[in-house]
Amino acid sequence: MPKVLISDALSERAVDIFRERGIEVDYKPGMKADELVSVIGNYDGLAIRSATKVTEAVLEKAGGLKVIGRAGIGVDNVDVPAATKKGVVVMNTPFGNSITTAEHAISMMMALARQIPEANASTHAGKWEKNRFMGVELFGKVLGVIGCGNIGSIVIDRAQGLKMKVIGFDPFLTEERAQDIGIEKVELDELLARADFITLHTPLTDSTRNILNAENIAKTKPGVRIVNCARGGLIDEAALKAALESGHVAGAALDVFEVEPAKENALFGMENVVVTPHLGAATSEAQENVALQVAEQMADYLLTGAISNAVNVASVSAEDAPKLKPYMQLAEYLGSMLGQLTVEGIGQVTVELEGHAATLNSKPILAAALAGLMKPISDSVNMVNAPSFARQRDIAVSLTAHDRDCDYQTLVRVTTTDGSQTRTVAGTLFGGRAPRLVEVRGISMEADFGATMLYVRNRDEPGFIGKLGSTLGEAGINIASFYLGRTEKGGVALSLVDIDGTVEDAVLQRIRALPGVIRAELLTF
Ligand SMILES: NC(=O)c1ccc[n+]([C@@H]2O[C@H](COP(=O)([O-])OP(=O)(O)OC[C@H]3O[C@@H](n4cnc5c(N)ncnc54)[C@H](O)[C@@H]3O)[C@@H](O)[C@H]2O)c1
Ligand SMILES: O=C(O)CC[C@@H](O)C(=O)O
């Protein structure tokens, strides 16, 4: 039974879902970093919100971890490259809290426009300062939205309902989409110059870090009000403070900060600054959505191999997962066979799919073939990290799904080139499920994959099979199955021998010394 740790405060519905799906779960919100490092090795899955930091140190101890599920959007608290390297799927729930966060941004904008937090505090204090507070209307004002994705688009929709004029900057926004959502697409400088209110809805990346720095803040309209419910780090806080003090920026509403949790911050206590402690996603609806979603997604992956909303590996739908599983097994066996037979570094890998295989989601099949191929290089390689392993090793990878008649109903062929050698193996699924080898280096043969197999290439000469059988027999090695093929009479023959147990090195040397042997290797699957 897979085991999952929930280390942040997720709706307890997530616990119910895991248990209903037959997954053991430990609910330990608020777990300290060192405790996480010491227990993570016991789990197959880790479900988090934003408080848990999944660092390289955590991942180093995460021996059997298969999946990290983020109940929310940003995965900036997860070292995704380290997780990928370790072969751990990282998934998020990209839509579950979008409405809630967009509503928070709108609330913050309104609170800012009407100084509601200060007026609230003053009135509670019995001051009745009716003449102290003078707000501004949103009606007719220009709202500049930086980042027009899921949340930005909902903010745009709500702001249009408030009769604001919305302009947007997003390098990935097409003109068609801008028209669909009813905004004017502008460049950043134009947005800065025209907006009365600016709201940020981008992820924190190298291109968005400090997107509102001193230089860009100086380009904004005097009296602008700024809202950030996306990520700390998008605004240079020191530059914002200076602009608030000079009066160039009339106010700011911030849900996120450069350093979180933030007990102290130079902006705290300023009258024209409204702050909340990263509450963008904090509604019961959003928390229920993301907790349910993350638990379902993680359970799907752990139980069936289906992958949704992963940020570091291709998706596999719940419908596709059972169909793909035997293909991934076949591809891994084929890749593994070639990986074990490769002597020099692999320069190129080609995966070809024919028949039914050509109609499937091909990326997981390719990833499985690469994982098998690179297993001899690294024990930690799996289908999550195999494509990046290949890239790091400058292995050129190509995938072709052939739309042509083939001798088998379904076929996967893997070809590698190392130095001057090109090797091809191909396999099919017997009965639609059981992986079966049908071709090795151009030689047709039908072989099931056994756990330990002897691979012998030799000149096709009479008496060879007898000598091979006797050598194994004398060493007390039992043959489970013997598969044969050859290029042509008197050409090159290939024996694949499924054996019980293993073949000691001394026996392998004796086989290599048999007359006519070109190559003999022990393969494990
Ligand atoms: N405060 C919270 O509690 C809370 C809750 C949910 C999400 N968030 C954050 O909100 C942000 C937006 O989330 P989303 O779901 O809308 O993401 P999204 O991926 O749907 O949208 C992000 C948009 O930013 C755009 N973008 C990327 N680089 C850009 C750049 N250099 N300049 C301008 N635009 C750029 C992208 O094209 C995309 O359209 C994320 O940072 C997310 O982590 C915060
Ligand atoms: O879990 C949270 O409270 C924060 C969520 C938010 O930052 C997100 O990226 O989804």
From TrEMBL:
Gene3D superfamilies: 3.30.70.260, D-3-phosphoglycerate dehydrogenase, domain 3, NAD(P)-binding Rossmann-like Domain. InterPro entries: ACT-like_dom_sf, ACT_dom, ASB_dom_sf, D-isomer_2_OHA_DH_cat_dom, D-isomer_DH_CS, D-isomer_DH_CS1, D-isomer_DH_NAD-bd, NAD(P)-bd_dom_sf. GO terms for molecular function: NAD binding; phosphoglycerate dehydrogenase activity. The lineage of its organism: Bacteria, Pseudomonadati, Pseudomonadota, Alphaproteobacteria, Rhodospirillales. NCBIfam families: PGDH. Keywords: Amino-acid biosynthesis, NAD, Oxidoreductase, Serine biosynthesis. SUPFAM superfamilies: ACT-like, Formate/glycerate dehydrogenase catalytic domain-like, NAD(P)-binding Rossmann-fold domains, Serine metabolism enzymes domain. This is D-3-phosphoglycerate dehydrogenase. Belongs to the D-isomer specific 2-hydroxyacid dehydrogenase family. It comes from Oceanibaculum indicum P24. It comes from the Bacteria.
